Amino acid sequence: MAKNHRSDRPPTDPASRPAPGAVLDRLASGPSRASRITHTEHLPPREGRHAVWPDRIRAEVVAAVRAAGIEHPWAHQADAAEHALDGDSVVVATGTASGKSLAYLVPVLSTLLEGAEAPNGRGATALYLAPTKALAADQCRSVKKFSHPLGHSVRPAVYDGDTPFEEREWIRQYANYVLTNPDMLHRGILPSHPRWSSFLKSLRYVVIDECHTYRGVFGSHVAQVLRRLRRLCARYGASPVFLLASATAAEPAVAARRLTGLPVVEVADDASPRGELVFALWEPPLTELHGEKGAPVRRTATAEAADLLTDLTVQGVRSVAFVRSRRGAELISVISQERLAEVDRSLARRVAAYRGGYLPEERRALERAIHSGELLGLAATNALELGIDISGLDAVVIAGYPGTRASLWQQAGRAGRSGQGALAVLVARDDPLDTFLVHHPEALFDQPVESTVLDPDNPYVLAPHLCAAAAELPLTDEDLDLFGPACEGLLPQLEAAKLLRRRTRAWHWTRRERAADLTDIRGEGGRPVQVVEEGTGRLLGTVDAGAAHSTVHEGAVHLHQGRTYLVRSLDLEDSVALVEEAAPPYSTVARDTTSISVLETDVEVPWGDGRLCYGSVEVTNQVVSFLRRRLITGEVLGETKLDLPPRTLRTRAVWWTVTEDQLDRARISPEILGGSLHAAEHASIGLLPLFATCDRWDIGGVSIPLHPDTLLPTVFVYDGHPGGAGFAERAFHTARTWLTATRQAIASCECDAGCPSCIQSPKCGNGNDPLHKRGAVRLLTVLLEGAPEAKEAAGEVADRPTEDPAGPPEGPHAP
């Protein structure tokens, strides 16, 4: 729990901690290190402004706050508490470590304490929702410690997939502050609402922490889960107040209203103090190695981040290195441990990896070690991006742009939470977007965080929640306003599909199976694949179903807590991958093929002779082989074929076509057409996150010299979520500026024939072949000559809502 002053902070006074500028100077002191820093941003410290708690807060709660070392609240904390007590739903949108947890916890505890004294009934209850299980567990520990002086009047408990079954009945009957996640609310609590009736009947507050994470398709699902919760609460006679918190939200009241369906008051004037933040942009150097097509290769962000984490650990600077993939977290941890062992064997034990897919007991042990300071350095996925209380961190290394400015600031905000100065270093990957950002710092530091946009009316989202709601309680006409205007058109379709049946004045669920199982709110596409050690039968962890084909196929190299395993078999029917420990001198990378067909064109805008289009498509993807790459050099050692079933996706896409005349003007011959289109596709995907608030790994692309549906050379960029996620639509609206930036990124790159900084893609299923850099520049030049003005290019869909698909946190989030 974020506090104003901490009684459990490390004994070292913040004033005596290493100055962030001095730490950066030491990192940059090695050979050629200083030249890797492309920009340094200094955020000055800020003084705090105090206030007093509302007089309606119970004296016992105020005393507990003071006992924790907090004499007076910050002004925004007192303001938020006042609104909560008035019955106003409120969103606290202040910076990291600004005490948002206390802002909502004080009125919640006061209300629970008051309810505990009621002569009859259970008393008031509260529900806390976190996007990850780790955050809920961390908050529960803090609440227990904080509310200890209040005795048994406050009974907090975590209720998620890790909760032992023998504890669940006690929680349902007696806990009055239940901490869970939207997944468990969707699959566990709401379908079993009769067993939760006394809790729901007394529900006074619903806390939604890190609410900016609920965006795009995931956020749209959570919005409908919250509407189902409100409907059941109303049936039991309750109307809870919603308290939301986020350190990185743009237009927080608008986003919170869309998420909850309720009017929400905004508290965004941050009155907390802040230490100095030094933020460095870091570009790894070119190496003597050459990659595909002889392209120059930069040192990887993973290797560079491992070096920085090692150096910080040797200096005794408590640090976390954020990395985008689970494998990357494992690699950074292993490399750092090996290098630290050469300096001092005891230091190697003070660095570890933290990621999703670990077993619950492994996660809990790591969280305790992080919190206590037993670990000095940590390599983590965004499982640790959110508000887990890691006191005393002095530095954050971010290995690769995390996809959004909101995530970037969340990760940077993990350091300096005790009031001391902090250092953040963004290490660029060899990627068009990262390269652009480290050389254009204004795109990071002079721009606000992205809007948290979502679309609860997306029919692919709404339909399964209408079924789930009908299974919980028959749907009536009075319920339809709660779920939005799209219900009217969807209900007949669900009835025709024999999922719902109209009886008198209500719709009923008709199937025997659970309606809540119709959808996975995180879009992970089925149950996770269990990774099992073949010789012992020991469960090592899990892999999301959507990633199984490319990460745990037969022959894949799998890393888990510093150990290397080879996958011997993948059973898709039983969702099990059997592995055995090994030490191969290579890593593996899956290769796939993708085809796309146009289902419907919603809008078509002339771009000179060419066309810019937006509509529905069907994408068919199949993992067909994998490459073995030498660990140190990345040299390809061989390719092995795979026999895995194809997967289909109906989604939304933006695409553009060019004519023969345009190809002639661009001097594109048939021999280089495929490579020119392919290069333009790769670079446009790499730059789209700058305009559509998405991650390149959430979007896909296909380029075809003669597409059977358009009968022209065509480049497609599509959403990686069923039904679409809003970024292809955003790309359509900003196509002129997006493709102009794409052309500029390719043309300004210093390489000769294309490299990972411009046109090569780390996820290309064709091994970045063919690619033609100069052809792509000429092609985009001719295309952009015909681009209309931005207003005209927006076309007929300009008024449609869009979504922000940066995606849910990677961490241990399943119910």
From TrEMBL:
<dbReference type="InterPro" id="IPR055227">
    <property type="entry name" value="HRQ1_WHD"/>
</dbReference>
<feature type="compositionally biased region" description="Basic and acidic residues">
    <location>
        <begin position="38"/>
        <end position="50"/>
    </location>
</feature>
<dbReference type="InterPro" id="IPR011545">
    <property type="entry name" value="DEAD/DEAH_box_helicase_dom"/>
</dbReference>
<keyword id="KW-0547">Nucleotide-binding</keyword>
<feature type="domain" description="Helicase C-terminal">
    <location>
        <begin position="308"/>
        <end position="460"/>
    </location>
</feature>
<feature type="region of interest" description="Disordered">
    <location>
        <begin position="790"/>
        <end position="815"/>
    </location>
</feature>
<dbReference type="InterPro" id="IPR022307">
    <property type="entry name" value="Helicase_put_actinobac"/>
</dbReference>
<feature type="region of interest" description="Disordered">
    <location>
        <begin position="1"/>
        <end position="50"/>
    </location>
</feature>
<feature type="compositionally biased region" description="Basic and acidic residues">
    <location>
        <begin position="790"/>
        <end position="803"/>
    </location>
</feature>
<dbReference type="GO" id="GO:0004386">
    <property type="term" value="F:helicase activity"/>
</dbReference>
<dbReference type="Pfam" id="PF00270">
    <property type="entry name" value="DEAD"/>
</dbReference>
<feature type="compositionally biased region" description="Basic and acidic residues">
    <location>
        <begin position="1"/>
        <end position="11"/>
    </location>
</feature>
<keyword id="KW-0378">Hydrolase</keyword>
<dbReference type="Pfam" id="PF00271">
    <property type="entry name" value="Helicase_C"/>
</dbReference>
<keyword id="KW-0347">Helicase</keyword>
<dbReference type="InterPro" id="IPR001650">
    <property type="entry name" value="Helicase_C-like"/>
</dbReference>
<feature type="domain" description="Helicase ATP-binding">
    <location>
        <begin position="81"/>
        <end position="267"/>
    </location>
</feature>
<dbReference type="Pfam" id="PF09369">
    <property type="entry name" value="MZB"/>
</dbReference>
<feature type="compositionally biased region" description="Pro residues">
    <location>
        <begin position="806"/>
        <end position="815"/>
    </location>
</feature>
<keyword id="KW-0067">ATP-binding</keyword>
<dbReference type="InterPro" id="IPR014001">
    <property type="entry name" value="Helicase_ATP-bd"/>
</dbReference>
<dbReference type="InterPro" id="IPR027417">
    <property type="entry name" value="P-loop_NTPase"/>
</dbReference>
<dbReference type="Pfam" id="PF22982">
    <property type="entry name" value="WHD_HRQ1"/>
</dbReference>
<dbReference type="InterPro" id="IPR018973">
    <property type="entry name" value="MZB"/>
</dbReference>
<protein>
    <submittedName>
        <fullName>Helicase</fullName>
    </submittedName>
</protein>
